[in-house]
Amino acid sequence: MHLARFAASACALALAATGAAVALAPAGSAATSSVYSVAPYVDMSNGQEGMLDTAVTGHHLKAYTAAFVLGEGCNQIWGDTLPIGNDSYTDPEIAKAKSEGASVIISSGGASGEPLAWTCSTQSSIDAGYQAIINDYGVNQLDFDVEGAAVADTAATARQMQAMKDLKAANPGLQFSMTLPVLTSGLTGDGVNILKAAKNAGIKIDVVNIMAMDYYAGTGTEMGQGAVSAARATLAQMQSVDSGYTYANLGITPMIGKNDDGSAFTLADAQTVEDFAAQNGVGRLAFWSVNRDQPCSGSANSLPTCSEISQSSLAFTDAFVPFEGSTGGGGGSTGDFSLSLAPGSASVAQGGSATATVSTAVTSGSAESVSLSASGAPSGVSVSFGPASVTSGGTSTLTATVGASVAAGTYPITVTGTAASGSHSATYSLTVTSGGGGTGGGSLTNAGFEGGGLSPWTCTGTSAVVGDTVHSGSHALRITPSADSTGECDQTVTLSPNHTYSLTGWVQGPYAYLGVSGGATASTWSNNTNWNQLTVDFTTGSSGTVTVYVHGWYGQSDVHADDFALG
């Protein structure tokens, strides 16, 4: 179930790097917020995620890159094959690190998989999939690790850049990195083409993160200087595409300890890279991986779990963490702030308005300017701030004005404060009421399957209505997955637009999923041999149309479902 570590493709790295040589720009301010200046990778699927907790609580690590989300058609899963937002292994690890003060970048792709834009050709599904990562994990930083043949896929690259353009427009403050293989002479020609694709799409890659590893240039390669050479060459290539790129838009990610090609990145090499980064204002330092930041016996299969060199546990973490406070581009100021709302919710009649106080506070470093914005408000609801920006430690008044035609319902509105150090968000729950009350129209048909037929449900494979395993009555739905299908059954319904609903259903069996897609996206799941009720809350969009679905999981046994309801 565990995803193997990523490694640069020898085939891809054998290509000659291209790009005209240009004069390097001086160091600039960081493209990423300072908390992300050191963000090593953590393989969330190799069984040693506990080292992340130790790095955060005992070694002052403030940010990390969680790897990897994999595209699977137009769906996304973690490396352990469980879906994003519903991974009982990965999600608690991310939540725990967050509770301990660590920020996370979510990375998609790697050597063993590809990001969604490479596995799905539908642009709207790609956009929705990446947005789901942002929503599920509350992140404002996404990383895309593209390796091997994927680097040369120009159609997928174009979809990727369009998705980033769309998401940046929808998510103020969102930043993304492209992690690419390099030689000591820089990016491959295909890597440079990815930079050109971003320019053609009208966007700028916030961090071009180079995999300074596995050069296959002989075991005597000096890996620290190799990383420096690769960084210098890559910036020249970046500036040949867009002169606005600086070292602040560059990330350096070595593979600590022994590399796949037999070379070794040592603690002395780490110091070489950190010195170069601080002197030139490099935007981000990372490494592969926190899971490997420990000594081991050097057995043939140990590279995914240790460095295979002499070191103390988390020695590379200790070596890179000081860059968090560097005055170079990546370190910048160590300032940070908090944001809160009081009250956090309000109930307003159609045509009315509500206010809340947005409070900010300095949590580290010095006070800084914080710009306020809101997202998620339905059509007909306007949200304003007075003032629209504050100095951290100050307050602003949020005013939500509700139009007379806004449908009754509860709407989560995300309030975001953005500063040089990064961004923080809080949710304002706005309930709109009307004189007539009610919950809006629309309902599920054949929710208990008591007629003995499927219609209007549609199912894949051999899923069917049965009478031998039921929750109530005389019939229920049997969902039959296969090796390449989840056995999904769907029903499309039209509900009231911009309204909050609760979908419930009784399920039994391994990895039973209940959810909605289309005009809203939400799901939950259980793994239980007994009947148990699942509940999914969601808010419809402007059309009110959603698809209700239930399915099992690839290669698992049958799931049964019964007694659905919408309220």
From TrEMBL:
A GO BP entry: carbohydrate metabolic process
Pfam families noted in UniProt: CBM_4_9
Keyword Mitochondrion applies: no
UniProt keyword terms in alphabetical order: Hydrolase, Signal
Signal peptide start and end residues: 1-23
Superkingdom of source: Bacteria
Record flagged with keyword NAD: no
PROSITE patterns: GH18_2
Every GH18 domain range: 36-307
Molecular functions per Gene Ontology: hydrolase activity, acting on glycosyl bonds
SUPFAM superfamilies the UniProt entry points to: (Trans)glycosidases, Galactose-binding domain-like
InterPro entries: CenC_carb-bd (IPR003305), Galactose-bd-like_sf (IPR008979), GH (IPR017853), GH18_Chitinase (IPR052750), Glyco_hydro18_cat (IPR001223)
Chain ranges passing through the membrane: none
Entry protein name: GH18 domain-containing protein
The species this protein was found in: Streptomyces yokosukanensis
Taxonomic path: Bacteria, Bacillati, Actinomycetota, Actinomycetes, Kitasatosporales
